[in-house]
Amino acid sequence: MKFISQFIKNPRVTGAIAPSSKQLACAIVKEAQLSGKKVIVEIGPGTGVFTEEILRTKSNDCVFFAIEFNAQFAALTRSRCPGVTLFEGDGKDIKQYLSQIGVTQCDCIISSLPWAAFSQVQQKGLMKAFYEVLSPEGLFITFAYVQGTYLPLGKKFKALLNENFDEVITSKIVWRNIPPALIYKAQK
User: Fold this and answer.
1) Which domains, ranges and CATH numbers included, belong to the chain?
2) 184: enclosing H helix or E strand
């Protein structure tokens, strides 16, 4: 399966022409500081590059699962990361998936969703679902392609982060990614 073909079929679901780079995955996981986190959820693992890095870095007693909307990407992630707990479904249903594993909150959500491709209604709905299940000191971490931060919906997403979280830190640009990206680290 070619990544770009998924983008062409549905650019609002697959928001990039290429999978995220190992460099972006390492930068995201470093920003997330996973040691000590008890419950981590990944939204939109795509080909599993972030999943692989999360599995390598998280503590052994940490509960971790991923939610992927695209069945072909879910299969790729399962192939790349055998044994990973992966639900095929919508990230807005995160509360339901947490319930299935017997918890109500998570310490960290790592998202690869194409925020600038979503309507403001979609952005708000997803953000509400994520915020509600984050623990009191919870961390939401995601990235945006640099060009997307200049688009109206990219700007609205950044404003939405600032409205919902006590602290939002924007990283330096990760140039070794197609397209280049920056990371948003949002702390409750």
Assistant:
1) 20-187 (3.40.50.150)
2) strand 181-187
